[in-house]
Structures are given as structure tokens and as C-alpha cells.
Amino acid sequence: MKINKHVIPINVATPAETKVTCESCEACCCRLKVMLITDTGVPNHFIETDEYGSSSMAQLDDGWCAALNRKTMMCMIYENRPLVCREFEMGGDECIDERTANL
Length: 103
Known about the structure:
The protein is low in regular secondary structure. The chain has a domain at 28-90. Helix content is 15%, strand content 10%. The protein contains two helices and four strands, in the order E-E-E-E-H-H. It has helices spanning 83-87, 93-102, and strands at 47-49, 55-57, 68-69, 74-75. Strand 1 and strand 2 (55-57) form a beta hairpin. The radius of gyration is 19 Å and the shape is globular. The N and C termini lie far apart (44 Å). The model has no long low-confidence stretch (mean pLDDT 85).
């Protein structure tokens, strides 16, 4: 069997190579349903309660989080954001998955 010595390099970006910063974020995670499981001080006008009594972040008709500033694409309640948002790692696996699905 003859082995081909000509190798063609393929540039493939993997999640580890994908750099996500505040400037390049695009806030894709702000389209996810965010359940409120602890009290972090989210203002009441950003909270929706369903028929079962579960609380979540309010979403606008287009699916974006109501606390997202659409001009800056930054959270208007960052210091009081839900625990789920605090634990969502920018550039982590879930972040990359949402960016891949939405960009």
C-alpha cells in the first residue's frame, strides 16, 4: 500500500479555539428560557410567573430577554442577574452551541 505524502492542512475552528469576548458576544444566550431558582434581586418587572408558580426571566415577543439592552447587547441588570446567567460561561460549551445555532 502506498501512502500519499502530500498533506493538505484543513483549518477547523473548535470550541477551544473560538474566542468569545464581551465585544464579540452577540448575547445568544439571552434567547434561552431562564428559570429563577434563587433570589438575586431581579427587579419584578423582569419576572414572569407561569400558571404553576414557577418564575422565569421575562422574554419579549421576539424571544429576547427583557433585561437585554438591544442597543449595547448587554444586560441591564448585570449585578442582579439570575444564578443561571451567572453560571453560563462565556465561551464555554453551551455558549458555543448557542452561537452555532443562532449566528
